[in-house]
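Bug: token stream looks shifted between consecutive jobs. Job 1:
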Amino acid sequence: MLFLALAPLSTDFILFNLFRYITFRSGGAVVTALFICLFFGPAMIRWLKRIQGKDGQPIRTDMTDAHAIAKRGTPTMGGVMILSAFTISTLLWADPRNGFVWAVLLVTAGFGALGMVDDWLKVSKRNPKGISARQKFLAQMAIGLVAAYWIGHLTRGPLSDTVAIPFFKDVLVDLGWGFPIFAMLVMVGASNAVNLTDGLDGLAIVPVMIAAGCFALIAYLVGNTVFANYLQLHYVAGTGELAVLCGALIGSALGFLWFNAPPASVFMGDTGSLALGGSLGAMAVATKHEIVLAIVGGLFVLETLSVVVQVASFKLTGKRVFRMAPLHHHFERKGWAEPQIVIRFWIIALVLALAGLSTLKIR
């Protein structure tokens, strides 16, 4: 809204010319989202405590140690704080005429609403399972397919149904009618991967911020003809505006981290984790960097693979590879302190993000 309202006034007031620049608006989105979280966060946490009662987030039945029991009573659905700040900041600073902005907002809001229903069922019924996995997956697929078709329609030329391969400047894999399915799987996979990672205070939110920072840069470069040509990236018109959404995501995540830092005052719940992962997935699809997301978000991939390996091993051999899955719980059972696990996983996320960014130059 600020872009449409103030950028046209730049001919009369030179200061308003700043609103034409994606970099300025991205910075504004960071600050706005951060301020919204910090200002309204305490009241929102009090509201969540009031509607959820003294028990708060239900604890998994297999988490019976003193560390897990100490978290009882902490309210969940803190993702409402993140999504509110993210949405308001995006609407203020992004260009509302850009279709990619609305496509990503659709995925973020849709997955967030699904997570909110899941969290509410867990809290109201005191059942840590919430919505069945089948129902959740089908709903995610439906939202993802709509967004995939929309993004495909917005993308011009041969890029609309192709997948770019990192490290190769001219390699495009044409998926044809299968692209919407692939794109949907990227969004659903990213959403559930972040959800699996969200198990310790601050563990998921910082890697999300790191990934959002990477995709802010990727979106800005891919959406700029000069930089895209120089780096031999596939130019996708209009995706530069997604850098503003990444800024809003970083700001809201920073604000949430203020309250989620150990010991957490609130958990994001599925409301936040499903939405944040879906948002990253949608941005990766829009910028044609779906495979790079698997590198930048490599920590989420590792957490997901640990669950897949654990389940497969137990079903096939009756034995477990890890003491507990996802991976962060394995290290908890080995005796690592929570801050030790979280900070080390942050380091891994940062290293993998840098590896993902290297694909922009190594061609």
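Job 2, same session, no restart:
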Amino acid sequence: MLLRAPMVKQVADTRYFAALGRHAGELPWLDHDRFSVVTDLRKDWFAKRDGSKLLPAAVLKSAGVFVEQLKADTSDRSCVRITPEQLADDATLFSWGLCDENLDLAECYIGLPVHFLGVEVKRERPDGQATDVRQWHIDVEDRRMMKIISYLSDVDSTCGPFNYLDRPTTGRAVRNLNYWSGFVPDANMNSAVPQGEWTQALGPRLTTVFVDTCRLFHRAMPPSKVDRYSMTFSYSSTTPFQVFPEFMQNRKTMMRLRDKLTPRQRTASMMD
């Protein structure tokens, strides 16, 4: 990766920290509850909260409809996702992802104006397959990123909880693996960090995780007995290294929403 070249990295780092400094005085104010989330994210790159106190009734209703659609899927895919077309028919979740409270939270953590990269609603089946994001990895989209992951079903150790290494353990794993990017199989991770140090984010339905997936090693742990249902809202700065368009909302939804969005929301959704 070009940015890892010493001279390029030095220039990029200088520009990045200068941008953080210039924007520091423009960061929005947060209420106490959301400020505590940012405090935890800055300290640990991870926070867990009771989502029943955060998620509006309209979001819960829409998410419940999507869960029923996922339950009706009869394919044998390990992971089944709500399609962009389905999300276009009911843009409640996408609109909530763009609400000022979430943009404020993401901006205060990331330290720069933010892009909302989209929402993903999915069902993870208990087939034991450890492929793609079910393997250990660190995201590469940006220097900092914030994801809001809300469980739409109860999640214990058999349901494929969000699995992560805490901040110091991630640092040790990166050093031991000489990690740059890509997926790491369980056996390799176990050789770098014993399985007993892997952390599972367990909790009842609506448990909500805030996490910087560009900083922490993480994975969607494969369920062993029971399906896991969840939704994820993703945020980066407006100058990410890269984005994955398959996780972004389609043009149909964007054009439908355009006239209802504020200038800030249009910028955050990459419409302007």
